[in-house]
Design goal:
Layout: E1 14-15, E2 21-22, E3 27-31, H1 36-44, E4 49-53, H2 64-70, E5 79-84, H3 89-98, E6 103-106, H4 112-122, E7 126-132, H5 138-147, E8 153-158, H6 177-180, E9 183-185, H7 194-201, E10 205-208, H8 223-238
Parallel strand pairs: 3-4, 3-10, 4-5, 5-6, 6-7, 7-8, 8-9, 9-10
Antiparallel strand pairs: 1-2
Enzyme class: isomerase
Family: Belongs to the TrpF family.
GO molecular function: phosphoribosylanthranilate isomerase activity
Amino acid sequence: MDRATEDMNSTDKLPDETGAAVPHRTRIKLCGLSRPEDVTHAIELGADAIGLVFYPPSPRSVSVAQAVELVRDVPPFVSVVGLFVNATPDWIREVAGNVGLTLLQFHGDETAEQCESLAGVAGLPWLRALRVAADTRPADLVKSALNYSAASSFLFDTHVEGYGGGGKVFDWSLIPAELARRAVLSGGLNAQNVSDAIHHVRPYAVDVSSGIEVPGAKGVKDHARMAAFVRAVRAADAE
C-alpha cells in the first residue's frame, strides 16, 4: 500500500519496541510539479507524494506526455497524485491509462457520485478537496466529509476564485478535530507558517504548491524553498 492510502486513524504517538513514544510524522505532498528536475529534487528531499495538475486552464498543468516523463524515475512508495477539476471520464481514462498515478485528487465541483464513478474508471483511490471560505463553519466541513465518505482523505484548501493555487491561508481552527487525522492541509502554506499549521491542526499531511515556487513563475519550483519547507515540517514533528 502506498503512503497516500495508509491508515489515517493512527494516534499522534505510538510506542516503539522500548515503550517510548514515537512522534507523529506529517506526510508531505509537493504539488504542481512540471519539470523533471523539480520531481528529482522532491524525491531527494524525501517527499511522500508529488502532485501533477491535469487541469489545462492552470498554469501548472502538464500534458500526458509531460507527465509520463515526470514520473519515469519515481521510486516505489512515493505516491503520484493526479489533480483533476471537473474532468470527463475520457480524460481520466487517458491520464490514468498512460501515467503511473497512485491517487486521484478531485478539486472541482464534482459530486460524491461523480468522484466515485471517475475513480472507478481509473481503478484508483481518491481524495476530495474541500474549499474553506470565510463563512465556512466546522459543521459544514463535517457535513461535506460525511457526503464524501468514500474518499480516502480530505484536502482542505482556501476558497479562492478558480480552483486553488491562490496562495491564501484560511482559518485553521475551522477544521474539526475529528477530521484532522484524515486531513491533508493546504492553502497558502510555506516554510514560514507550516510549523504553526501543524501545531494547530495536527494533520495527517501537508500540501504545498505556490509556497515553494519561484516568485512570479507559477509551476517553476524553487529548490531552496522546497528544501526549507521540508525542513520546517520535520522540525515541527520533532518538537
